[in-house]
Amino acid sequence: MLDNLSEQIHGKAAGEPTWASHPLVDFxxxxxxxxxxxxxxxxxVREIVHLAAETGTAQSMYEISRYxxxxxxxxGLMLEALRESTSSRVRRVLLASSRSIYGEGAYRCDHCGxxxxxxxxxxxxxxxxxxxxxxxxxxxxxxxxxxxxESDPPRTASIYAATKWTQEEYVRIxxxxxxxxxAILRLQNVYGEGxxxxxxxxxxxxxxxxxxxVGSELPIFEDGLESRDFVHVEDVAWSFLAAIDRxxxxxxxxxxxxxxxxxxxxxxxxxxxxLGLEARTRVTGQYRLGDIRHNFADISRLQAVLGYRxxxxxxxxxxxFARWVLSRAHGVDRLDSANRELVERGLMGVYxxxx
Length: 355
Description:
This protein is of the alpha/beta class. The protein has helices at residues 7-10, 35-42, 57-60, 64-84, 124-128, 159-178, 204-214, 233-245, 264-275, 300-306, 314-326, 335-344, and strands spanning 2-3, 28-29, 47-50, 92-98, 107-108, 144-145, 181-187, 189-191, 218-220, 227-228, 230-232, 252-256, 262-263, 281-283, 286-288, 348-350. It has twelve helices and 16 strands. The chain is globular, with a radius of gyration of 20 Å. The model has no long low-confidence stretch (mean pLDDT 92).
């Protein structure tokens, strides 16, 4: 286990986590950006589960070198360490990638009959005018979201997404040249017990749970109807285990999600109910450049290749998450300061019409 215990995720005084001393865990505190740490971590390893990445669509738009160094160069160093090793036993690399690769998800047009399209990223002008929904490239009508499949082309809309696509290409090409199998798991919006409660750049449910607990208002961006595919971390873990255990080669991409879309406004209210508290939401009309409108996964390949289908419903998952949250000290609310950073850098605005 190689981890740098990032301050943004774990806090300033992060000591070694309790699991680090478990007899079945060989923990290396280090960084994927250091070749020597990769060499130490890979000794005797049969499968690599590469989860390490800087995450956060908005933050990536101005901390470009940091995201590039960790995500792209760090993955390159892994492949170099594998190539230079004289005793490597690695048979498969599993990469945690992201639904952000797709940019906007797949859509159809019910007006002109266009069966499938991946629209371009929404422009700053669209967002400033409150044109939230992507438009048909043929007739300009509002599109309808449909499940996004692994065969849909990448349409990266943020630096974060671009670095995840780079990771995917490095793993695909590098593993093929090394004769190592690989699996790229494109994760949807992962949530659940154990996630950081203090990182304001990722984990909308963590942000919401902190605010609900102290009675603060929840600012809902755009019109609140933007949707995501929320998948519980346990289902993600079982998907990785299925990929590790598969005897036959994988050599490809697999979506990992619930296969269902839930609006941000709806998930906020569901979380409030799970916490037993009121979720005081306010639709703000705020928007962030690089954010997508809709994306939910076609998970048929997850079932066909790995034989797995997510087991935890959103209701059950939010209940589990809420019970865990209530057992913890609430995290420091850094949402307002993070948003101020984005405004100052011209990466966040607000629609001035009726939200």
